[in-house]
Amino acid sequence: MSARSVAIVGGTGTGDFALGELLDEQTVDTPFGKPSAPLRQCLVGAQRVWFLPRHGDGHHIAPHLVNYAANLSALHQVGVTDVVALNAVGIIGRRVPVGGIMLPDQIIDYTWGRRHTVRDGACGSLEHIDFTEPYSRHLRQDLLAAARSVGLDAADGGVYGATQGPRLETAAEVARLGRDGVEIIGMTGMPEAAIARELGLSYACIALIVNEAAGQGEGDIHAQLRQAMTQSRERANQLLRAFFSAKE
Length: 248
Ligand code: HPA
Prior knowledge:
By secondary structure, the protein is α/β, with parallel strands linked by helices.
């Protein structure tokens, strides 16, 4: 356990995760190209934590243009073992309020045309990874325990539907996703989770619920999103602080 090295992959609205002192910054190249930004190692409490903003510094890379393979490979190259992904999502239904957070336990991938593997025999050996449980059980459990330790509500489990974006969904698409069993919708959950598994990285997602999915609520999605982001982000930060203070 002592060799565990954690990275946070930040998403929309989480790029300014309150990190401590900057310890190291590395511009890494990978067989798949460059990651979204230099990797930065910061002090969070007493822990050294890597941080990578998925959409780049200043948030300029659209979900379908993120180089997920380069991002995960770069983290792997610097010795990261565990990735905690922050993903903004819309919610279907009422189980978790907007402004809350969820740790999903399943994924359905609706994305297309993205480099979705680093184990296809062309680059890396051909492997058919077991993806029955797409998120790492022990990392999810550690995060949930950290939430409980500070009395923070973090919904345990749910199906993440990864859509292509960058547009939001139609009401009919959301209804179909709901029939599929999807509870939260985001644009960046895949292929990130699968490539992490291919590289042998533990991976879990903290989903920031920032809006009701299209057709599920009354108001303007973007207004809701702006309003809820601060609340969800504060919850995610609280969870991460608890997680890193619990980690040896
Ligand atoms: N759909 C897809 N991606 C999202 C949403 C949504 O409603 N909210 C935040 N990211």
